[in-house]
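Why do we bother with a discrete structure alphabet at all? Because it lets us treat a fold like text: something you can write down, compare, and reason about line by line. To make this less abstract, here is a complete entry for Potassium channel domain-containing protein. Read it the way you would read a sentence in a foreign language you are learning: slowly, and without expecting to understand everything at once.
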Amino acid sequence: MSYLLVPLGLFILIIALVDIFKTILYINGGGRLSSFTARKIWWVYFKMARGKGKAPILNFAGGTILIGLVAMWIFLIWVGYSLIFLSDPNSVLESSTGENADIIGNIYYVGYTLTSLGNGDLRAGSDFWRIISNIMGMNSMIFISLGISYLLPVLQAVVDKRTLAVYIYQLGRSPKEIINKGFNGEDFSPLYSRLQNLETMLLKHGEHHLAYPILHYFHTHKRSHNIRLNLAILDEALNIQEAYHLDKSANAFTWRVLRGAMDNLAVRLHEGYTSPADDPPDFDYFNDLPDELKNNFEEDPGIPQDDDFNKRRGKLLGYIKKDGWEWEDVVEEK
């Protein structure tokens, strides 16, 4: 017996099961192995797209990663149990002759026990291995159930993510368009009800990203459906309001509440999915403001001399660049 194969097989099984648990059941993100695999698959797609967010090939990255993670878990469990069975030459026998199965036979037996697709040409060699086979079958059943329970909410979260992107896009295709369309000559009342709905959607989106980190890799090359671009547009519109204090009505609190929701989302988007740029982009929106708003100023107040404000905008630029977009995609109405 090759007893050294047993701890090796158990080690691989533990790695796989811990990763499955952390990715599917743990609310605060995916396992290390899953996160590493997802990043590498995304890197390959990003290179094929030449770093361009408009490249349609990036649309396939999320689905590939999702299938790749499931395939990785299946492979690790299969390898782990195969090593355990290979530790004993008598673990699997030919049903017709009673002879020991070869290496391929052991691997085949483990595979069909995991999938319940065997035709009975192999059997466990002893009562001990029958019990191990039962444990393996139950493990497979639990894994399949967990896999289904993971796939469905992830796909629903992808739908919610794109719904949020379109919702923001309808507010305006650029930060200044959100401000200009939302101002009715006196206040921003056309925006208030939509911003209140947006707060709930942003909070939900943040929790989805925490529970399902794979969401970061579900990309779309369509500007209207891309969540990173539209979140950047919304955040920059909030920056304009914050810098110029345009809304002086009693409902200005709506903007601050929405800023809180965006701050919560920024916490969820940890450093693995965003990176600060060297310098924040230009902030020159004053001349594009409605005349009624510009009349409140004697001159352009310029960009706020606030380190946090500048760091936030620099990080915002890094956030979209990591998805293959440029700042022009945020500020230009397309």
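What the structure line is telling us, in plain words: The two ends are 68 Å apart (CA to CA). DSSP finds twelve helices and two strands in the chain.
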